[in-house]
Amino acid sequence: MIPLLPLYAAGAVLRWVGSKPKRLAWPVISVGNLSAGGTGKTPFTIALAGLLVREGFGVDVLSRGYGRSGNAVERVDPDGSAERFGDEPLLIAREAGVPVYVGAQRFEAGALAELGKEAIGGAHLPVHLLDDGFQHRQLDRQMDIVLVNSEDLDDWLIPAGNLREGLGGLRRASVFAVPAGDDAAVERLRRLNFEQPIWRFQREMTVPDMTVPRIAGPVVAFCGIARPEQFFSGLEQAGVRVVGHHAFRDHHRFTARDLTLLMDLAKKFNATALVTTEKDRIRLGGLVAESSPATPIVTAGLRVVLEDETDVVRWLRAALKGDSGKLSL
Q1: How far is Cα 33 from Cα 8, in angstroms, rounded to an integer?
Q2: Pseudo-torsion of CA 101, 286, 252, 242, nearest 10°?
Q3: Same domain, 189 and 220
Q4: Looking at the domain assignment, is residue 310 inside a domain?
Q5: What is the DSSP letter of 163?
Q6: Contacts by 322-328, CB closer than 8 A, 24 or more apart
Q7: Dist. CA 49–CA 97, nearest whole Å
Q8: Are residues 39 and 175 part of one domain?
Q9: Which residues contact 23 (CB under 8 A, 6 or more apart)?
Q10: What is this structure's pTM?
Q11: Which of 77, 310, 314, 316 has a CA-to-CA distance to 223 between 20 and 30 Å?
Q12: Most confidently modeled of 224-228, 264-268, 321-325?
């Protein structure tokens, strides 16, 4: 794989050459990263949307809708399916409670949002959140929030690793968001002479009460995300007794055959429940109802909490006015 890295790196650079980004009427805040997944962009976007709404902003989210079956530019129906809208946009629509629009061209999704003016509500500060937008060149944005962790800073470019572009791309970032406790990432960023502000955030896994009789005891964990080991270790750190696990490919579309495999695995380990992520639960759809009552499918959520929210909001307001250089956190 390593001999292919120069070709991939050249392709990543060419993406930024020769295209002029389009500008929407409302400000755009991008949330993204360097890697192909596993940094918590979706729960971070949900947390940021909630914070902005509480501060009086009118918020919508623009997303590509990776893995969806259609190509239409449309607003996500929270009661819809992952096949139509994509698992991440659907989760954001359900959890954040703000309008979410999907489209391969995020400019068109934003134009549709502005046409409906649904994000404004009673607010005077409308803003778009661009989900997973750091590598999306076609849409102009006022700021790029980039999630960074130690694992990314030590990783390789695809296909040898998980990075979509090299560390030099971080120079485009407006702000870095780093998990609390990952001091090594902060030190590495400073050693590399990145001087952007750094926000810290807590990642909290919410696990159902395992003392309830129907889900008491050991569990089998499964997921289809970019870095499944983070999910499995997070469950164990939360006190869940994981006796078996199975990882599917990222954004895997589940079938009845998969459910049979998982039920057999639970039987093999005498597990009392199958535990998965919120995004995987969405992609399971109606298969959840077909699981055995003796071995229910339980969802473990991931919640992000921004530290120093007052300073974050102060910085955001200044940045959107064009004078973020006067502030530092």
Answers
A1: 17
A2: 120
A3: no
A4: no
A5: B
A6: 324/143, 324/174, 327/197, 328/197
A7: 9
A8: yes
A9: 140
A10: 0.89
A11: 77
A12: 264-268
